[in-house]
Write a structure and sequence with these properties.
Layout: E1 14-24, H1 27-38, E2 41-45, E3 49-53, E4 63-67, E5 72-80, H2 83-95, E6 100-103, E7 111-115, E8 121-125, E9 148-156, H3 159-168, E10 172-178, E11 186-192, E12 200-204, E13 209-216, H4 220-232, E14 239-245, E15 252-257, E16 263-268, E17 281-284, H5 300-304, E18 307-308
Length: 327
């Protein structure tokens, strides 16, 4: 069966998605976009790097911007429960011959750089410098009031392979798109650790590439506020898709692109998935509501364009499906 069994005792304990590291070609312009338009808080900055976070986040950063000549995604960060879990993760990846190295990262404790079987570069850590609580400092809110980083969505050349691997390390499938033939195949999947719809989603396509990261906002009106702001401050052309509502995840959404084309979903909605007996929701690939419960159809760019990972050459997918992006 394409749907994997739930692993109740994973080899190491991933708590949640944590942060993304981008390279950008103009740090000043990118920082201004994320700080003044999106509304993230700049926690620290230097000449060639900035660390930002949402208003709910206590950790030092959920977005890192580094000045370089080429725009890419460097790493997708996940927080583990303990340093013992970091040791177990290192053993797990080394035992399978997957790239794995200990590194030093500013504002983080011991950190592990690994690569999953599809080629996605990941960063595991168990501790990050804690910061001042901003949640109720309403005078400091800007943009659309982003609360926290919610999830990653990546193009996978082999969605079934991605699902099987992440299920093996304890991620639970919440919703998925599947073909209707006699040998059904998963074309897109949403998986979580933190008890919401997803920490990471996989969509069939040329990969690995990053499709988007998502920030949670308090309400749908904050998305409308962002659209008004972008339309009147020179960012109208950066609105790629939305607003609308997905069938999968129930998210009220808009997708926007930063000055280098990195895509962010601004996201309201979602639901709890903490019950261990919660069965994943299946969507037929022929059901258009999975992509858009209501709203305008997505442009071609949304299906085809993504941010490359540093040093990774994307490959064509092992299977072809009709348009399957739903989040």
């Amino acid at each position: 069966m394409p749907v994997p069994k739930r692993v109740t005792a994973p080899p190491f304990n991933v708590l949640r998605c944590s942060h993304v590291v981008y390279t950008v070609t103009d740090l000043g312009r990118s920082r201004a976009y994320y700080e003044e338009t999106i509304g993230l808080h700049v926690q620290d900055a230097g000449d060639k790097v900035a660390w930002l976070r949402g208003m709910e986040e206590r950790g030092h950063h959920s977005l890192v911007l580094r000045q370089e000549g080429i725009a890419r995604a460097e790493r997708l960060g996940f927080k583990l429960a303990s340093e013992d879990d970091l040791e177990r993760a290192e053993h797990f990846f080394r035992a399978r011959g997957l790239p794995c190295a200990r590194v030093e990262v500013p504002y983080q404790g011991p950190t592990l750089h690994v690569t999953d079987p599809m080629g996605d570069p990941l960063e595991f850590f168990a501790s990050m410098e804690q910061t001042e609580r901003l949640l109720q400092q309403y005078g400091r809110y800007r943009g659309c009031h982003p609360q926290r980083l919610d999830h990653f969505n990546v193009f996978s050349r082999d969605v079934q392979g991605s699902v099987d691997f992440y299920a093996a390390i304890g991620f639970r499938l919440t919703e998925y798109t599947e073909t209707d033939d006699d040998a059904p195949r998963i074309a897109a999947a949403w998986m979580h650790r933190k008890g919401t719809v997803h920490d990471v989603a996989f969509t069939n396509g040329r990969g690995p590439r990053l499709h988007h990261v998502a920030y949670l906002v308090p309400s749908a009106m904050h998305i409308i506020q962002l659209l008004d702001l972008m339309a009147t401050t020179g960012w109208l052309s950066s609105i790629e898709r939305g607003p609308g509502r997905h069938g999968i995840s129930n998210a009220f959404f808009v997708y926007v692109r930063d000055p280098d084309g990195h895509r962010t979903e601004i996201y309201a909605g979602d639901y709890l998935t903490v019950d261990p007996d919660l069965e994943p929701i299946r969507w037929s690939i022929s059901d258009p509501r999975r992509q858009t419960l209501w709203g305008m159809p997505a442009p071609r760019s949304w299906f085809e364009e993504g941010t490359p990972f540093r040093g990774v050459v994307p490959e064509e997918p092992v299977a072809r499906f009709e348009s399957v992006m739903a989040d």
